[in-house]
Design a protein that fits this description.
By secondary structure, the chain is mainly beta. Among the domains are: about 100-240, no CATH class; about 260-310, no CATH class. It has five helices and 22 strands. The chain has helices at about 5-25, 30-35, 230-235, 240, 260-265; strands spanning about 40, 45, 50-55, 65-70, 75-80, 85-90, 95-100, 105-110, 115, 120-125, 130, 135-140, 145-150, 160-165, 185, 195-200, 215-225, 245-255, 275-280, 290, 295, 310. It has a seven-stranded mixed beta sheet, with no helix packed on it. Strands 9-8-17-12-15 form a five-stranded antiparallel beta sheet. The longest helix is centred in the N-terminal third of the chain and has 21 residues, at about 5-25. The radius of gyration is 23 Å and the shape is elongated. About 35% of the residues are buried. Bound molecules: 2-acetamido-2-deoxy-beta-D-glucopyranose (9 copies). One of its GO terms (cellular component) is membrane.
């Protein structure tokens, strides 16, 4: 409770709470889903059901729990997979927008060799998330750069890469807004990927001749709609600083307890889609998503007043 909140406001809130509880009991929804504080919100980010803040008992299953951590005094941020910050969760398209560390490989002007590269990995094995192959592109910036994207070392089967070159260190062929292998390279990733690591090829590329112009190379899997190449990314640390060292990444999530809609519909006890909904097969990995039928709005994973309601009578339900 905020300290400045007046007694009158507190009374209104209490009355509203009672109203909500009675609504909830009447609708037969789990009480925890609405009555608990900060169940579906963290640091201004909506955490809609089936998601919920960890330990609040608000998520459909542990897979949909989100950590709500105090990152500095009074500042809360949502995280999944321990350290991946969540910016937004979308129910309709089954996506989550998160932050992904930008990997880098820099020339050390003093030792006159490449510093050990900063190579990031992301482990979403066993979660409801997959790296979105429709929204993201593996993005590499540099003038003599080869970076790989791969799944788990030793057990994985996937490896791809991107090469970016400025021939003879000539930056004049690099063009703002185009990413075609000159100073910038982008490539698609495989579908159903739940692990990713970055590896820079450092040994075989002689970068000593170009460090003055392009001291650092970068590699990151990121939302391609959030990226526009600038030649300034080659000559300065602007790419890294623009994004604060982290670029937006899109994850696809789904209800993964069944492989498809057809399989899920065989058991209506565990079927996640509630009234006035239809089912969509996951497009990235096994599983399915629920959407409200045309003309209905609300949360397709909830029964009752916050579930899918005829549009004209449910203007606020889309908040859930
Ligand atoms: C958030 O809190 C969880 C649970 O205490 C912890 O495991 C995780 O490492 C924390 N993450 C960050 C980024 O602080
Ligand atoms: C990735 O996470 C899974 C599940 O938590 C774990 O079994 C596996 O060992 C992890 N892999 C790596 C390389 O950390
Ligand atoms: C590309 O745009 C940046 C600013 O965004 C500018 O500094 C740079 O000179 C431009 N490069 C070219 C080749 O036009
Ligand atoms: C790397 O390039 C520099 C100048 O471009 C050259 O002097 C040097 O011999 C090269 N080193 C290797 C190992 O090829
Ligand atoms: C690298 O060091 C040389 C002198 O050794 C200096 O002239 C140059 O400005 C330095 N470059 C960078 C990018 O720091
Ligand atoms: C990324 O794109 C989203 C929407 O597509 C936009 O809201 C956001 O401001 C963009 N962020 C950056 C850093 O470009
Ligand atoms: C990128 O930005 C992050 C956060 O500001 C910083 O910690 C990191 O050192 C930067 N990396 C490079 C290569 O500049
Ligand atoms: C969903 O996937 C299953 C299995 O791959 C397939 O048989 C079915 O036709 C798909 N259903 C829809 C609605 O696309
Ligand atoms: C249907 O799902 C419920 C809840 O997950 C489970 O307890 C039950 O065993 C399932 N029934 C069948 C026939 O698989």
């Amino acid at each position: 409770m905020l300290p400045h909140r007046s007694a009158a406001l507190a009374a209104v809130r209490a009355a509203l709470m009672l109203f909500l509880i009675s609504k909830v009991l009447a609708s037969g929804e789990p009480l925890a889903a609405v009555a608990k504080r900060d169940c579906h919100e963290c640091g201004g980010v909506d955490i809609p059901y089936p998601f919920g803040v960890r330990s609040s008992g608000c998520a459909m299953a542990p897979d949909y729990e989100v950590d709500c951590n105090e990152t500095s005094k009074g500042v809360y941020k949502p995280f999944v997979s321990r350290n991946v910050e969540v910016l937004k969760i979308s129910l309709q398209i089954g996506q989550a927008r998160v932050m992904n560390h930008i990997s880098s490989s820099c020339y050390n002007n003093i030792s006159q060799t490449m510093d050990p590269p900063d190579e990031w990995y992301l482990n979403l094995t066993g979660t409801a998330y997959r790296l979105s192959d429709s929204a993201n592109k593996f993005t590499v910036i540099g003038c003599r750069t080869l970076a790989y994207i791969a799944d788990e070392s030793y057990v994985g089967k996937y490896m791809s890469g991107c090469v970016s070159v400025c021939r003879r260190g000539d930056l004049r062929n690099a063009i703002n807004g185009t990413c075609t292998g000159i100073g910038c390279c982008q490539t698609n990733i495989r579908t159903n990927l739940d692990y990713y690591q970055i590896v820079f090829e450092v040994g075989s590329l002689n970068t000593s001749g170009i460090y003055n112009m392009t001291p650092c190379s970068y590699a990151v899997l990121m939302d391609s709609s959030n990226f526009t190449f600038s030649t300034a990314y080659l000559t300065s640390t602007e790419f890294n600083t623009t994004y604060g060292g982290q670029a937006p990444l899109v994850l696809d999530w789904a209800i993964r307890t069944a492989n498809s809609c057809e399989e899920a519909q065989k058991n209506f006890t565990s079927y996640a889609c509630k009234a006035n909904t239809f089912c969509l097969n996951s497009t990235n990995g096994p599983g399915y998503l629920c959407n409200c039928k045309k003309g209905y709005q609300g949360n397709p994973y909830l029964q009752g007043p916050n579930g899918c309601q005829a549009s004209d009578s449910a203007s606020s339900a889309s908040d859930f």
